[in-house]
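Incident review: delayed structure delivery

Summary: a single-chain prediction request sat in the queue longer than the usual turnaround. Root cause was a stuck worker, restarted by the on-call engineer. No data loss occurred. The affected request and its eventual output are reproduced below so the record is complete for anyone auditing the incident later.

Affected input:
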Amino acid sequence: MVHAALRDLLFRRRRYLISTFGCGLVFAIGLVMTGLSDAFPVEWERTIQALGAKSFVTPAQLSGPFSGASPFEGDRLPAGVDPMAFAVQTATLDEPITVAMLGLVPRSASVPEIESGRGFENAGEAIVSTRSPFGIGDTILVSSHELRVVGTLGDLSVNGGMPVVVVPLGDAQEILYRGLPLVGAGIIRSDERPTAPDGLQVQSAATARTDALRLLASARKSIDFVKVLLWLVAALIIGSVTFLSVIERLRDFAVFKAIGTSVPGIAAGVMLQAVALALVSSVLGVGLGWLIAPVFPLPVVISPVAALLLPALGAAVGLMASLFGLSRVLKVEPALAFGGAA
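Output delivered after worker restart:
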């Protein structure tokens, strides 16, 4: 039965090739959706690592340094803790874009590593992520505050591609707090945690990342829902092709039954066709996913684990899809081989 199944695949190769490409594209989109969901925590992890933060000092009533605004006096921070201000802002060059603005003390150890240009030294300067459309020498406008770009960071972004813009703490205080000496949080770069003053708390970097991702929970659930729909679409494509093949081969199956071929053997041949189609489609989907990811508008992180799991998921989809044809195979009567009714 395995030989017969493979011969049928070759005989109907054009149909299977078209179906394979269609399923491969569906699998590729599903892989990209997985990479998009996985990119959210990676973005925050990269940003927190770029700051060198091991933990944060935040107001006691806040769940994290990036998810709320409750500024406090900067002189309340323990010694050795770098002050930070954070807010989502609109930056305008030719057109407005949403950026994640970080306010840090110039030349402090918390300023992320510069990729090109230089770090900010004076008020009115900024360094920007390479994901932003801004370049060195551009003057951007943030809340009516002009900032000249003097350097670029690596590919730092948060919340699905929102580029990071780092400005001097004084400029951030002008933009966010009307010039008052307030900060949004403190960055602790050492493993030792200082005692937080009354009204403040110390949170680990992992807790800060988890809290930041909490704001994206609905988006990640929506992506997961779309992935389930894509798997169902792939199953329907494979199932319809398998069912059509079974309908065209009913007399063949009747002959197999008439000559004593076991029903499990016949079913194994049908399942082999569906699984083969799904496996080839999933491998093609991995390749297409890697090609689509770099040009996708949002950050996509395709992990090796996700790429390796896709063929296994494809095999499971193929097995499920084979049920469409198996139900018809089990009903066929041997008499059909001799011209009887199906």
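Verification: The longest strand covers residues 82-92.
Action items: add queue-age alerting; document worker restart procedure.
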